Amino acid sequence: MSEATSTTEARGAEHAPRASRSSRPSPRSFPWAVPPGASDDDIRVGRRRWYTGAVFALLWQVLEIIAVWGDGRSLRAHVLSTVALAVVYAAYLFAPELMWRRSLRGRVVVLAGVALLAGLLLFVVGPLAVWTWLLVAALSGFVAERFWVAGVVVLAILGAQFLVAASTGWDTAVNSGILFAPVITVSVGASMLFFGRQREAEQRLGVAQDEITRLAVVEERARFSRDLHDVLGHSLTVVAMKSELAARLVDVDPARAKTEMQDVERLSREALQGLRRAVSGYREADLDAELVSARAALEAAAIDAVLPRDGDAAADDVRSLFAWVLREGVTNVIRHAAASRVRVTLTRSALTIEDDGTGLLDPDAASTTPGNGLRGLRERADAVGATLTTGTSDLGGFRLRVERNRR
After folding, report:
1. What whole-number distance in Å separates Cα of residue 265 and Cα of residue 276?
2. Over the range 303-336, which residues count as b (16 or more CB within 10 Å of their CB) and which as e?
3. 11-25 per-position pLDDT tens digit
4. What is the full DSSP assignment across 295-306?
5. Tell me: the pLDDT tens digits for 143-181?
């Protein structure tokens, strides 16, 4: 039976789900930029992120149009400037559609085209065109497979803005606000760098979570194989031996043969009960295992966590419920809370998860998996006579608490 167990464990490891992400994070990219080999789902997410931020950025450009119409030039110049600005805005808004599946070189070409259009605005709009170059800095996130690429783009824009300010005169640049444009450009570049690093951390965390999940599946399958071996191995061996003995004794000693068959029946029932216990333990969530998994996941996410050492404090009838709540609560903290501290408190009848993050505006939508999310947890809690509550944590973030009702 030991050989069979080893074979089963090997097959479990072989067929265990692989991590959905590569074991090596993809090249650094910004939240709205996706690598050239991205799937349609990745592009769909990137497109939604891009247009959400792009429309917001264009709203600020209303100030640019107001400034152009108030610079004292002729009506013809104002109309021509507005049309030129509209062309640049359209190029900025839809340039990513040309970048999604292109290589780094192709993306640089598209970015250079948009930058050229923005640069030509100097001849139509005048020095105020420097404010549109902020859009080029934002668009450079699509080619930033390495952060130095975006850095070069931002530095080039800063140099061009200072040249324009110098050519118009420093006093004029200060009075018209043109000299303030480089400050905003640096701010945009710093924001891009922050979002890029955040995206890279999310990618690494995703890889770590997938690997932890895969290893947990392998370990659980190995554990279940060992349980089956321990439950059925000895019992079936004895059943087989007693059955053979009873077959030989049925003619020479019927009474003893009957006794042996009664033992076979007893051993069979005991093996069946053991199998049911093993399957029940396999289906239910284990609180101690979830605490270990939560500690590993929070450590991978660089979140300072205070968790119980084990789940011995919880009552037996709520341990499985607490395990499900802990799993979902920690998952939501990592994915949605943007927290730096987490505190898990466990008593005999209650489990509380608190963080210092941003909280959840729509906690029921925190998970798209059927049966998960707070709605699914409330159903589980109701089934065992417990109550699930949410609120604001003492740490300043979200609080999730489940407590068994008084009996």
Report:
1. 17
2. bebebbeebebbeeebbbbbbbbbbbbbbbbbbb
3. 444 444 444 444 444
4. HHHHHHTT-EEE
5. 655 667 777 878 888 888 888 888 888 877 777 777 778
